[in-house]
Amino acid sequence: MDLCTSPLFERLASARHVLIAGGGGGFDVFSGLPLYFRLRAQGKTVSLANMSFTRLEGVQGEWTAPGVVRVDATTAGPEHYFPEGWLARWFARQGEEVSLYCLDRGGMAPVREAYASLHARLGFDAVVLVDGGTDILMRGDEVGLGTPVEDISSLGAVHALPEMTKLVVCLGFGVDRHHGVCHAHFLESVAALSKDGGYLGVTALLESMPEVARYKDAVSFVCARMPRAPSIVSLSVVSALEGEYGDVHRTVRTQGSTLWINPLMSMYWAFDLSAVARRCLYLEALADTRTPWEMSLVIEKFREERPIRPWMDIPV
Fold it and tell me: InterPro entries of this UniProt entry (predicted)?
């Protein structure tokens, strides 16, 4: 590596087909869109998947496997919350036919089975698991874990796939303050991953980049059509891209809380997925869980039996 190379893109250079998957639910797949557009421009095949918060029994899409629904611009779904369907419709407005694979929320075992079925169907040779926020790096003994059920079920599921390039990319440094995450603990995790060789640096997203312009347009289009549940993460990242700073709110969903919009929020933080998985203290204990509620109970029991590291301020 040298200053002229991006470790993130170097890891993906030989990949022919990349799956970009939102790991934490909701709008996480949107955080992978700038990467999607750049990899497509490089001539690669790129597929999109998302751990979905959509009520999938109300989606009239193709069930390609248990817990996996393929949606496109023609797929009907719940009116108040269907970001994957609206994103497919945004693509159609750009003249592109793009399918997204929605993964049903579950314990690690069914999510692992869902990813295995996706691999069998699509044949991708690289996976980028995208986290809107940074809580996927919490190993389990931090004061705040954010929303670990979706992140860790996705992490464990991708980790179990056959040998291939597997990466974690986080976008939205600071946004998890809204969910009680201590960002000093995130930086501590980055340092530990750097020591382990699993940290692949940061890649800045700038408003002048065409990939970023398309990302912003997609976020704006979908959030405008879901006024009851726009994305806190995506709108916060857009604020950061536009140069906002501090307690800046774009949705009533964040009223009553203090936000920290900052320039680090619009950077991709990239990691080797296997290195992230090795640091997770309760990953193995969750391997056979079948439901989100079972995962929550295992995590709660784990935290009851282990000292929890207190909040740390970043001393700068």
Answer: DUF1152
